[in-house]
Specification:
- This protein has 350 residues and is α/β, with parallel strands linked by helices.
- The chain has 2 domains: 32-132 and 264-320, Periplasmic binding protein-like II (D-Maltodextrin-Binding Protein, domain 2), CATH 3.40.190.10; 135-260 and 325-347, D-Maltodextrin-Binding Protein, domain 2 (3-Layer(aba) Sandwich), CATH 3.40.190.10.
- The chain is 47% helix and 14% strand.
- It has helices at residues 2-28, 43-54, 65-75, 89-97, 107-112, 173-186, 188-200, 210-219, 229-237, 241-249, 278-288, 291-301, 315-320, 330-335, 337-347; strands at residues 31-36, 57-62, 83-86, 129-141, 165-166, 224-228, 250-253, 264-271, 304-305.
- Strands 1, 2, 3, 4, 5, 6, 7, 8 and 9 form a 9-stranded mixed β-sheet that branches.
- β1 (31-36), α2 and β2 form a beta-alpha-beta unit.
- The longest helix has 27 residues, at 2-28.
Length: 350
């Protein structure tokens, strides 16, 4: 009997050992493949905290939005991507239109992320979710421009500001999203006249990024420009003397406070169409909507949380004050991108 019991016990012990090893291996194999266009050092803490809380290891591919979308298309069904992070509503809309995202159903994300900051919901679910916001504001040289001359986006194309304006490329997604917003509010004909006026008001050809526009206004190269708020907040929090000097020379306007409100853009995330780790991908997006993650977006990269209940403890954002923002869905703004680009081509906005 002893031999029989021993012979039965050995296989059971072996089976238990194998199951234990399998469970350990499974835990070790928990991973998430992230394709990210966010290049902010503070996001490192976000990813580390997610791994610490869940045991899910994050493998990252970092490049710009265009590079990520091209890679997803070329990889097709063989793509290892589970989550895609992009930094503009127009880019998110375009990726959705090209079938690069997998719509998902998450009651938590629907509860946390306002409806106007996510894709339109279908029977399959929601294709993408805004995770942080930034406003597109007007900056002006306080020595040469009166604030009342730039209270609205429409003023950028008005004759009173001829020779004063500088911008980055009109075709940059940040501008395409702003122009798409104006298109939604004013219609095609008025938007075309407005953009034609902006071209006539240029102090120089469009070039550089948003930070370059702020510095150009401060130096007097031009007198007014448009920028995303987080670029301005970086300079406000900077210890560099040149940045501090530039900030002192400019004024800031949150446009259209007496009409539809200031244009808001987003950084957002989605589950990749061919995600192999779908449960982990949804868990990661839900994590990014948590109070802790939303605070990282605000305090680390000077973005406003998408979740309204989270109040940022960021001195630069607090200094900018409260403002009225537009409420049209960012998905609608993104959908106007092709029509806006055609207008830009017609009016010669480079």
């Amino acid at each position: 009997m002893r031999n029989l019991a021993s012979s039965l016990t050995r296989p059971l012990l072996s089976l238990g050992l194998c199951l234990g090893l399998a469970a350990t291996a499974q835990a070790q194999d928990q991973e998430l493949n992230l394709y990210s266009a966010r290049h902010y050092q503070t996001d490192e803490a976000l990813y580390a905290n997610f791994t610490k809380a869940t045991g899910i290891r994050i493998n990252r591919v970092d490049t710009d939005d265009a590079g990520l979308l091209a890679r997803l298309k070329s990889e097709g069904s063989a793509s290892p991507a589970d989550v895609v992070l992009l930094v503009d509503a127009a880019r998110l809309w375009k990726a959705e239109e090209e079938g690069l995202f997998l719509p998902v159903k998450s009651s938590l994300l629907n509860q946390r992320i306002p409806e106007q900051l996510r894709a339109k919901e279908s029977e399959q679910g929601t294709a993408w979710f805004g995770l942080s916001t930034r406003a597109r504001v007007i900056v002006y040289n306080k020595m040469s421009v009166k604030k009342e001359d730039v209270l609205n986006y429409e003023d950028l194309g008005a004759a009173k500001n001829k020779g004063r304006l500088c911008t980055r490329s009109g075709s940059h997604p940040y501008n395409l999203s702003l122009f798409g917003s104006v298109y939604e509010h004013l219609g095609a004909a008025v938007t075309e006249q407005w953009l034609k006026g902006m071209v006539l008001n240029m102090a120089r050809e469009p070039k550089g990024g948003d930070t370059d526009q702020i510095k150009a206004v401060a130096s007097g190269e031009c007198a007014i420009a448009i920028t995303n708020t987080y670029y301005l907040a970086r300079m406000m929090r900077s210890e560099k003397p040149d940045d501090r000097s530039s900030v002192e020379k400019i004024g800031v306007v949150f446009p259209n406070q007496q009409s539809w409100g200031t244009h808001i853009n987003i950084a957002g995330g989605a589950v990749a169409r061919h995600a192999k780790n779908r449960a982990n991908a949804i868990k990661f997006l839900e994590y990014l909507s948590s109070d802790a993650a939303q605070a990282y977006f605000a305090n680390g990269n000077n973005e406003w949380p998408a979740v309204a209940s989270v109040r940022p403890a960021n001195p630069a954002l607090e200094a900018m004050g409260r403002f009225k923002s537009e409420t049209i869905p960012v998905a609608v703004v993104g959908s106007h991108q092709p029509k806006v680009q055609q207008i830009l081509d017609r009016v010669g906005y480079k």
